[in-house]
Specification:
There is one protein chain. By secondary structure, the chain is mainly α. The protein folds into 2 domains: 196 residues, Fumarase C, Chain B, domain 1 (Orthogonal Bundle); 309 residues, Up-down Bundle (Fumarase C, Chain A, domain 2). The protein has 20 helices and 9 strands. A 3-stranded antiparallel beta sheet has the order 4-6-7. Strand 1, helix 1 and strand 2 form a beta-alpha-beta unit. The protein starts with a strand and ends with a helix. It is found in: Cytoplasm. Pathway: Amino-acid degradation; L-histidine degradation into L-glutamate; N-formimidoyl-L-glutamate from L-histidine: step 1/3.
Length: 519
């Protein structure tokens, strides 16, 4: 297979596979082992379906209606009905990459051979992804328990040729038309298949995996911006010495300190406050500067924990009931989203705190009473020019929203399905607010970068020589369209350019030729 094809097997998948399919349109192919496992599990379901005894999800109703035994002639209708009735989402459309992650992860579980879905249904799921057909999924409809029910139902509806979907050209059309245009035959669901397509943590897991990828870039970017601020404030890099971090051996802390130290290597600005500014001797820098490795590092350790949870979930087969290797079909509670929901909320907390410390450093750069000789608001002619005064307002507004988004969704639960489903995870909600938080954090880091690079350039104009890595960051940001010091101008385009620069990982890419690979 070429590098653009992801093979779905029987033993889970990787975070890199999820990102490749969701964001980059990688093709999907079922392995021979997956097809074999699908067929074997289907034989077990068919045998149970032929028996007179009721089996949940095969020959019964669902949820609080599980007590009703469904006759053979109504079972196809039962499977269609669960999809149609559960496709009850409301609100704005969910992003294309989220829906593709949702579809791919459901296919991953189906291909495990524990769901009883026929091979041809799994193949149709892969065909949809490969055709670039993306079901219309709505913001609201999942409680994060019994799976992401409404979002997955909208995906299953498209498999049936019903509802609406977005084609590869971005146009929303009736799903049946899109399937026909791509030569895909809608599926006719058999026993258990409707339920198996709906019952998983795939939406919240997909959003977790993508958030982890984004946050990895942002934490490295924030190490760089923290180093730039330390340099612009004429701080000391002695606090980054590895022996200081070795005696408090949190792994992320040491990584962040090392990143900052490498960015600052060769700087002519660090430790120069006394002889450059005429300040009273400064024994220590402010917490937002001195404690950057501790805060950034604690967030990094949280990312590592969340990645462990995501890896376990990626290796899981989440359905109810499940087909076991010995032929049993057993009910279970593995669809409960608590493990994923908790780390989604945890990440929103650390993202909010990272945003907060970035904003505090930005504010310090702009305040002439605390910036050790920089002009007020980094303005060209303070009073006539306002400089970056309102950029900090924007950053502060984003930080304030980040704090609201840090309130955990997983601490809530609301009963559903006539009290049968009386405790739920709210994991989908945790994932949705984390996406907003990551988006906001990117903007916050971008504002810090914009302010820090301007401050470093102002120091350079005084005859001080920034670190080679700092010079590389400044040059790359300016080349990306975010201008340097000067009289006031329309600021929003500069901030947008800085946002794109950080979001696309270009800040990290700009300094690594100087620093070597940063963690």
């Amino acid at each position: 297979m070429d590098m653009h094809t992801v093979v779905v097997g029987t033993s889970g998948t990787t975070a890199e596979d999820v990102v490749a399919v969701a964001r980059h349109g990688a093709r999907v192919e079922l392995s021979a082992a997956a097809v074999e496992a699908l067929a074997a599990a289907r034989l077990i379901v068919d045998a149970l379906a032929a028996k007179p005894e009721p089996v949940y999800g095969v020959s019964t109703g669902f949820g609080a209606l599980a007590s009703r035994h469904i006759s053979h002639e109504l079972r196809a209708q039962l499977q269609r009905n669960i999809v149609r009735s559960h496709a009850a989402g409301m609100g704005p459309r969910v992003e294309r990459e989220v829906v593709r992650a949702l579809m791919f992860l459901r296919l991953k579980t189906v291909a495990s051979g524990h769901t009883g879905v026929r091979p041809e249904v799994a193949q149709t799921m892969a065909d949809l992804l490969n055709a670039g057909i993306t079901p219309v999924v709505h913001e609201y409809g999942s409680l994060g328990c019994s799976g992401d029910l409404a979002p997955l139902s909208h995906c299953a509806l498209t498999l049936m040729g019903e509802g609406e979907a977005e084609g590869p050209d971005g146009t929303v059309r009736p799903a049946g038309e899109l399937l026909a245009a791509h030569g895909i035959t809608p599926v006719e669901l058999a026993e258990k298949e409707g339920l198996a397509l709906l019952n998983g943590t795939d939406g919240m897991l997909g959003m977790l995996v993508m958030a982890l990828a984004d946050l990895k870039n942002l934490y490295t970017s924030a190490d760089i911006t923290a180093a730039l601020c330390l340099e612009a404030l004429l701080g000391t890099d002695k606090v980054l010495a590895p022996e200081l971090h070795a005696i408090r051996p949190h792994p992320g802390q040491g990584v962040s300190a090392d990143n900052m130290l490498r960015v600052l290597a060769g700087s002519g600005l660090t430790g120069r406050h006394a002889d450059v500014t005429g300040d009273a001797p400064r024994v220590q820098d402010a917490y937002s500067v001195r404690c950057a490795p501790q805060v950034n590092g604690a967030g990094r350790d949280t990312l590592d924990h969340a990645a462990v949870v995501a890896g376990r979930e990626l290796a899981s087969s989440v359905d109810n009931p499940v087909v076991l290797p010995d032929g049993r079909v057993e009910s279970n509670g593995n669809f409960h989203g608590a493990p994923v929901a908790y780390v989604l909320d945890f990440l929103a907390i650390v993202a909010a705190d990272l945003g907060s410390i970035c904003e505090r450093r930005t504010d310090r750069l702009l305040d002439k009473n605390r910036s050790h000789g920089l002009p007020p608001f980094l303005a060209d002619d303070a009073g006539v020019d306002s400089g970056l005064m309102i950029a900090q307002y924007t950053q502060a507004a984003l930080v304030s929203e980040m704090k609201r988004l840090a309130v955990p969704a997983s601490a809530d639960s609301i009963p559903s399905s006539a009290m049968q489903e009386d405790h739920v995870s709210m994991g989908w909600s945790a994932a949705r607010k984390l996406r907003t938080a990551v988006d906001n954090l990117t903007r916050i880091v971008a504002v810090e970068l914009y302010a820090a690079t301007r401050a470093v350039e102002l120091r350079a104009a005084e005859g001080l020589v920034p670190a080679p890595a700092s010079q590389a960051a400044v040059a790359a940001l300016r080349a990306a369209g975010a201008e340097g010091p000067g009289p006031d101008r329309f600021l929003a385009p500069d901030l947008a350019a800085a946002d794109t620069f950080v979001r696309e990982g270009r800040l990290v890419a700009a300094v690594e030729p100087v620093t070597g690979p940063l963690a």
